Amino acid sequence: MLQSRVTGLLVNEHHSEPYAEYAAKHDLKLLVFTPEGICWEKRTATGLYLTRYGVYFKRLPLPKVIYNRLYPHDQRLVDRLLSLSPLIQVFNQVTQFDKWEIHKMLAATELAAYLPQTYEFDQATLHQALSRHGDIIIKPRLGRQGSGLWRLTALPGDLLLVKPAMPVPVALPYSDAVLNLFHVLMVPYTMVIQEYIDLAAADGCHFDMRALVQKDGCGRWQVTALTSRVAKPQQYITNDYQKVAHSEKLLVEHGFPADAIVGEARTVSVKAAALLEAELGHLAEISVDLALGRGKLWIIEVNSKPDKQLYTELKDEQLLEDVYLMPLKYGLYLRKKRRPRRGVLRPIT
């Protein structure tokens, strides 16, 4: 039956690259479709049908396994797909994480020691965090690809150094009036406050480590890639970076104990993936942003829909193929294994 041989990719817009290349190379059958392409009455979806023979615009039965790539998250659509009978399996059921909710989940686990102090933004916690830490980051609870970040640093002489995401600092009086202004500018409960961690540097520029954690063709969590973004000079965040490098190579080149750091980063990231899946539902890929600072490893944040374009900058064709292919291998694994009863999730760690 065709339905059982096709893996679905639920996306915002139709596109075939780079999946068409991998479908042809590995003899995969993929249906790339949007929510608008679903016909609920007939249980079909219209989209790009990718095979080893080419790419076609076609209507097919809804695949039994669907890889959710929608962003922002659409829980009503996911729930509707999961309610269909016979059962459809949707993985990556949550594609937009709330930083405050994720922090609370991980803070209740063995990974709590890796988390910077974090607060839900309101007027009281802004005062509290600045008084306690003296240097804080304010950022949106929902991802905006690095935009909307602010760094506030208390300085001697009752001054407050304000840095937006770009390096144009402004010194303001450290006063209730200024803090109240931030409260007006930022909608309460849509932002989080995090203590500032002075990241480790390579040649004077801060760097992080992003672990891409995916399930493999046997249903197990593993780290497919561990890469570092090196910030531009004078930048305090790595979203605005000058280059991307393999983390292990970068660590070795700059005298860090690479084996220990990489091993710990991989272990922590896999644990984070398993713990979050147990809380949120069926996941198959996340990215964990880690950093070195104050002599230890930190989890800065966790992302639900990793930016895979990042890996094109490494010029590593095998790694790039692994990054895109791993969720498809997991989809094949789901198609072959016995389907779980409705509502029952059996995460494999």
What does this protein structure show overall?
The protein is α+β, with helices and mostly antiparallel strands. The chain has three domains: 2-91, no CATH class; 117-195, no CATH class; 200-336, ATP-grasp fold, B domain (D-amino Acid Aminotransferase, Chain A, domain 1), CATH 3.30.470. Helices cover 29% and strands 32% of the residues. The strands form four sheets. It has a six-stranded mixed sheet. Mean pLDDT is 91; it is low at 341-349.
Could you tell me the mean pLDDT?
91
CATH superfamily of the largest domain: ATP-grasp fold, B domain
Largest sheet: 6 strands, mixed
CATH architecture assignment name of the largest domain: 2-Layer Sandwich
Coarse structural class: alpha+beta
According to CATH, the fold-level topology of the largest domain is D-amino Acid Aminotransferase, Chain A, domain 1
Which spans of ≥5 residues are poorly predicted at pLDDT below 50? 341-349
Query: Count of DSSP E strands?
Result: 19
The arrangement of helices and strands along the chain is: HEHEEEEHEHEHEEEEHEEEEEEHHEEH
Provide the number of structural domains.
Answer: 3
Write down the Rg: 22 Å
First-to-last CA distance: 31 Å
Q: What would the principal axes of the Cα set say about the shape?
A: globular
| Percentage of residues in helical conformation | 25-40%
Q: What's the CATH C level of the largest domain?
A: Alpha Beta
| Spatial order of the strands forming the largest sheet | 4-3-2-1-5-6
